[in-house]
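Example S7 (C-alpha cells).
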C-alpha cells in the first residue's frame, strides 16, 4: 500500500475526528459554565453534588468514561448498545471536558474583584446583567490560555474513541498498521494531529490577540 493510499484511507476518518472535536466543544463549553456556577452556588447540597461530579470526571480516565457511557446502559439496564457510536463518544467527551472547563471558568470568575460587582449594583445593573455584560467578557479574556491548552489536548484525546471501536482517523490508521505491518500510518496520524493542533493554536492565538484590548 502506497503512502497516498494510506493518507486517502485515513482521511476518511478525519471527518469523524473533527465531528468528535467540534461537537465536544459545542456541548462542553456551555455545560462547563453551568457546572462552574453550580459549583459556586450558596446551596451546599448543589455545590457538594457538583464538586463530586467534577472530582469523579477529573479523577478517572477518559477511556473508562467512554466505556461506561457506551456499554454501561447495557450492563445496568439491558439497553442495547447504540449502533451510532458517535453519540456515546460525544456524551463522554462532553461530560469529561465540561468538568475541566468548569474549574477554568471558576478560577476566572473568582479572579474578578468584588468591587466590580458592587460598582455594577450602584449603576443599577441586575445580577444577570452584571455577569453577562461586565464579568463574563473579562473572564473569557483571562481564561483563553487555559482553554487553549484543553482544546489542544482534546484534539489528541479524540484518538481514544478507538476504545469503543469508533472508526475515527487513529482507529483506521491502527488497522492499516496491523494489516501492513508498518509504523508509517502512525507517523501519518501524528502529522495529521500536529497540523490540526497548529490550526487550533493559530485560531485561538488570534482570538486571544483580539481580546487584548489593553495593549
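Recovered sequence:
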Amino acid at each position: 500500500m502506497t503512502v497516498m493510499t494510506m493518507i486517502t484511507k485515513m482521511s476518511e476518518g478525519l471527518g469523524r475526528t473533527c465531528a468528535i472535536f467540534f461537537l465536544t466543544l459545542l456541548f462542553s463549553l456551555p455545560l462547563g459554565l453551568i457546572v462552574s456556577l453550580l459549583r459556586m452556588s450558596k446551596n451546599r447540597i448543589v455545590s457538594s453534588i457538583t464538586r463530586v461530579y467534577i472530582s469523579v470526571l477529573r479523577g478517572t480516565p477518559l477511556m473508562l468514561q467512554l466505556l461506561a457511557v457506551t456499554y454501561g446502559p447495557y450492563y445496568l439496564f439491558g439497553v442495547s448498545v447504540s449502533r451510532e457510536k458517535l453519540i456515546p463518544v460525544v456524551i463522554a467527551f462532553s461530560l469529561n471536558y465540561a468538568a475541566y472547563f468548569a474549574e477554568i471558568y471558576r478560577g476566572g470568575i473568582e479572579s474578578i474583584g468584588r468591587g466590580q460587582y458592587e460598582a455594577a449594583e450602584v449603576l443599577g445593573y441586575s445580577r444577570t446583567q452584571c455577569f453577562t455584560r461586565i464579568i463574563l467578557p473579562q473572564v473569557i479574556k483571562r481564561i483563553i490560555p487555559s482553554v487553549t491548552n484543553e482544546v489542544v489536548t482534546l484534539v489528541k484525546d479524540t484518538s481514544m474513541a478507538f476504545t469503543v471501536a469508533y472508526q475515527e482517523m487513529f482507529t483506521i490508521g491502527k488497522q492499516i498498521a496491523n494489516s501492513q505491518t508498518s509504523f508509517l500510518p502512525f507517523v501519518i496520524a501524528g502529522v495529521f494531529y500536529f497540523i490540526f493542533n497548529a490550526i487550533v493554536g493559530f485560531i485561538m492565538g488570534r482570538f486571544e490577540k483580539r481580546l487584548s484590548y489593553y495593549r
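Notes on this example. The chain has eight helices and no strands.
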